[in-house]
Amino acid sequence: RPLFRSFLPGAWDPPCSASLLAASARIPTSVPGRISSSVGTGTGLPRLCLRPRNRLGCCLPSILPHGTPWNLVCEDGWKVPLEQMSHLLGWLLGCVFLGAGCDRFGRRAVFVASLVLATGLGASEALAASFPALLTLRLLHGGALAGFSLALYVARLELCDPPRRLVFSVGAGLFSVLGTLLLPGLALLAQDWRLLQGLSALATGLLLLFWGSPALFPESPCWLLATGQPARARKILGLSAEPGGVDPEDGSEEESSLVPATELDMLGAQSPQPQYHSVLELRHTRVVWRNGLILGFKAAAAVLLLLTGDRWGRRPVLLLGTLVLGLASLLLLAGTQYLPGWTMLSLSVLGLLASHAVSALSSVFAAEVFPTVIR
């Protein structure tokens, strides 16, 4: 759409447009290069910034409905990355809080609630009247989308048996990539960000209409069993087994992947009330302490890269890390029965440090070497 509009009724050629054309005719052809070279250097012509002129009521930048100018250029250009950071921050907070909600209230409850929030917030973004309102809505919308994606991902893994989990995960990833590839074409057809935002809200609303039914998206039986609700788990398993002609009450079929009714009854007798768990309970497990130790090595490797990556270069540090990792792995593999304990521990620590250093540095090195178009 045009950058400038006339807000005077019946004025097809506002006065300032003629002045702009006359001024542009007097500018030499070398001015654009001089303007671009003067940015950040203080030389050449001053940087031009198109601002609204209230004196004549024309030459205003393109404004959105309700008469609110956005002015996301020049000194206000920092608002664009702020909006993007707000959306990513909302996504992060949504993963944390709605992820905990998935464990507390169930996968289906968070999935439906997130879809409802995403639909309403997406429609509200299309009607935002000011930039602060849009910023807040983008934050909340990112959190809702994160909860929807996380609940769907976890429920999909728990509803599929292990041999088919990879196939379903890859298929879902392909649908996500397909949607990302179709988004530029949809934006080209919409030609307006408000219309595009409304179409995305319509898409989440259609998802809510189809996948909001318990028959199409049931609660995860794994979560129900983990929280001590075997009766609901048995009901969902029975509904899932009916299309395949499997009797959920018959535990004699070894090929059936369902939990026998006797085991469900035993679980129900042990915990008559639902038992909910918190992520903080993981502090008492050995797995968390082991993973925390591994993350400690990762942090140490990051500090090592900060000290050596810029001083010695990417390639020497990458080759050195690969060599140390290979030697430590070979010594641990060959000398398990002959080396003392402190030597094994030292080689393990050295190998972990080298492993994390090589992993991080190879990503940076590849990002710097590959061209931007295929990075």
From TrEMBL:
Keyword Transmembrane helix: yes
Membrane topology: Multi-pass membrane protein
Subcellular compartments: Endomembrane system
Sequence ranges assigned to domain Major facilitator superfamily (MFS) profile in this UniProt record: 1-375
GO MF annotations in UniProt: transmembrane transporter activity
PROSITE patterns membership: MFS
Pfam families assigned to the protein according to its UniProt record, in alphabetical order: Sugar_tr (PF00083)
A GO cellular component entry from the record: endomembrane system
Chain segments annotated as transmembrane: 85-102, 109-129, 166-189, 195-217, 317-339, 345-370
Xref: InterPro entries: MFS_dom, MFS_sugar_transport-like, MFS_trans_sf
Protein name (record): Solute carrier family 22 member 31
Species the sequence originates in: Panthera tigris altaica (Siberian tiger)
Gene giving rise to this polypeptide: SLC22A31
